[in-house]
Amino acid sequence: MHKEYLMGNEAIAIGALAAGVKFVAGYPGTPSTEVLETIAKRNPGNVYVEWSVNEKAAMEAAAGAAYSGARALVTMKQVGLNVAADPLMSLEYIGVKGGMVVMVADDPGPISSQTEQDTRTFGMFSKVPVFDPSSVSEAFEMMKEAFDFSEKWGTPVFFRTTTRVNHGYESMDIPDNDEFEKHEAEGFIKDASRFVIFPKLSLKNHALIEKRNADLTGVFSKYPRNFVLSASEGTLKRKGIATHGINYTYVTDVFEGASHPDILKVSTPFPFPEELAADFLRDKDEVLCVEELDPVIERALISVCGKYGLSVRIRGKLTGDVAPSGENSVDSVADALAAFTGDDSLRCKSPELKDMPELPVRPPVLCAGCPHRASFYAVKQAMKGEKTFYGGDIGCYTLGNAQPLDMCDTCLCMGAGINIAQGIWRVEKDTKCFAFVGDSTFFASGITGVVNAYYNQADLTLVVLDNSTTAMTGHQPHPGSGRTAMGQVVDKVSIEAVLKAIGLTFVETVDPLDLSLAIDTVKRAQQESGVKAIIFRSPCIAIQKPVGRSCVDPEACIGCKKCINELGCPAMVLEGSKAKISTATCTGCMLCAKVCPVGAIKKED
Question: Structurally, how many domains does the chain consist of?
Answer without folding.
Answer: 4
